[in-house]
Amino acid sequence: MSLEKLCKLIEDGDAVEAKIVTGELLNKGVDPLKMIDSLTKTMAHVGELFAKLEIFLPEIMLSGEALSAAVDVLAPYLDATGGREVKGKVVLGVVKGDLHEIGKNIVKLILETNGFIVKDLGYNVDPLIFVKEAEAMEADFIASSSLMTTTMPRQLEIIEILKSKGIRDKYKVVIGGAPTSQMWADKIGADLYCYDAKSAPELFSAALAGK
To answer: Residue 117, SS3?
Structure first.
């Protein structure tokens, strides 16, 4: 049983076998964080195949379901220590018009296992909802994901709403997603560009340290 086999099961969308193999790898002592890293790369590859029209929506949805099955098994191991210091509060979601939340789910898991409290708003989230939920939670971060160029302007709308309410400086605004970039973050005035899931805890912690 190998990590490569698990990645292949995720790519093939075999949720039942992926769950079984994940448990077997954990029993063999494979590092859960190493597994998350490999699965993240696998889903990035699946996303590339989708972008090239080599696979289609049903296939990518099956891969997402297989990933979720594996993550369900991994979560208790990643969070086994418990009782850790809360590093920060994050409102997280996928912007309005975008239905792709696999990457967002991985970011949520990794942030939570590294001491952050995360309010997951799901997908297709209106910009105003990000702001309202951040206010209600007294969050440190408002983090939005966009997976399509057509929905990227919604990330700018979040910042515009914060400015209009006079509360822009209360939050670190984070953007991420396949078509986004540091250049886009700079253009819209975001505080942070999260380029991949596994880097999120370090980036968020560094941003708070410089607050």
So the answer is: strand
